[in-house]
Structure formats: C-alpha cells, structure tokens
Amino acid sequence: MFGRKRRIFWAWPILLLMVFLLLILVGLDRGLRSTITAFAEAQAYWTATEAIHGAVLEKIAADAKYSDLIRIDKDNQGKVTLMRANLQQVNRLASEATLIVQETLKNLQKQEIRFPIAQVLGIRLIAAYGPTIRLRLIPVGTVQVKPLESFEGAGINQTRHRIFLNVVSSVSVIVPFVKANVKVETRVPIADTIIVGEVPHFMLGEWLGRTGAYPRTH
C-alpha cells in the first residue's frame, strides 16, 4: 500500500514534466512553422518577381519603341500640342506579356529552390551549411497585365514620360507541411522619352482614362 502511494507520488511530477515538454515542443513547432512559412513566402515572391521582371524586359521591353506606343503632335514652334496612345500596339504588348509571364511562371515549377534551415533560424555563422528545405512554386489563377504611365520632372522645362506594364499574378509556395498562396506584383518599364516644354495635361492621362485604356499615375 505504501509502495503504491510512493509510485503515484513520483508519477505525477513525471507526468507534469512530460506535459510541460510536450507544450514546449508544440510551441516550437508552431513558431518554427510560422517562421518557415514567412521565409518561404518571401523567397517565393522574390523568385517569381525577378523571373517575371527579367522575362518582360528581355522579350517585350527590348523591342518596344516609345514612338510606336505614343504619337506626339507638335506645332510649328516644336511645342507639343497632342499626345495620343496607339491603343492597338499597347494592348498587343500587354497580351504578349501575359503569355510570356504565364510561360515563365510555368517554368518555375521545374526549378529546385532550397534554403538552409540555419538561415531561417537566423544562425548566421552556419547559414550556408546544414540541412536544407526544398521549396516548390506552382502558378495559381490568371495573370493580369495592365499598362500604366507616369510623368516625372527631368530637369528645367523637361518631363520624362514612362510607359510600364504592371503584372499581377499568384503562386502557391509549397514546403514540407506548409502551403500558402503568394500574390506577386511588379511594374516593368518598357518605354520612355523626354518631353521638352509643357506637357498637354488633358491630352494623355484624361484621354486614356476616358477610353478605359489605362490610368495615369504620378
């Protein structure tokens, strides 16, 4: 009888210790899972953004000419009187960019991306060594490409007009025991020019806004 009570007496502290250790492990698992997820999402965003940006620059911006996208009319004194967008050409570039981005994201599935666990945990001394975590990227949903423009001061009586393609998509990032969707958005410059003199305020941004082609950004 006395021996049984003694065993029960010692069993309770051991049981409490095991529960305590279990809670610690659960907390560590959740914390580590959250850290890995955040790191994987950041890695996925950076990888997809760089791939999209590079593909559009190489295959779209390299051949795009400002004069093909925007038509500028001037008076006898060389003053800009009218700026008109070539909507057919702008929309064609946007459509081509959409196909290129879709193919680029599809190719990311074939890449093997790994990062060291030590890097996730912030252990800098051994960040380049030790076990690694494999990351997979899978395109999700559709790709949206929208032309945008901006005006910036470029000196005395000079304005820089730039045309961009704003790309929005999503990728699913998959690491062991974790899956999350990441929204990817990047703006790629495709053409620009320097306008000397006053820019016809109402001719470009508002005109395009009325046609629904793309908004003017500042």
Note the topology.
Elements: H1 2-61, H2 66-69, E1 70-74, E2 80-85, H3 87-108, E3 113-116, H4 117-121, E4 132-153, E5 158-175, E6 178-196, H5 205-211, E7 216-217
Parallel strand pairs: 4-7
Antiparallel strand pairs: 1-2, 3-4, 4-5, 5-6
Task: Give a nutshell description of this structure.
This protein is an alpha+beta fold. It has helices spanning 2-61, 66-69, 87-108, 117-121, 205-211, and strands at 70-74, 80-85, 113-116, 132-153, 158-175, 178-196, 216-217.
Low-confidence runs: 23-28, 202-218
Q: Classify the helix fraction into a percent range.
A: 40-55%
In total, how many domains does the architecture comprise? Answer: 1
Distance between the termini: 85 Å
- Quaternary structure state of the chains depicted: single chain
Can you characterise this structure?
- The chain is an alpha+beta fold and 218 residues long.
- It has one domain (2-217).
- The protein contains 5 helices and 7 strands; from the N terminus they run H-H-E-E-H-E-H-E-E-E-H-E.
- Strands 3, 4, 5, 6 and 7 form a 5-stranded mixed beta sheet that branches.
- A hairpin with a 2-residue loop joins strand 5 and strand 6.
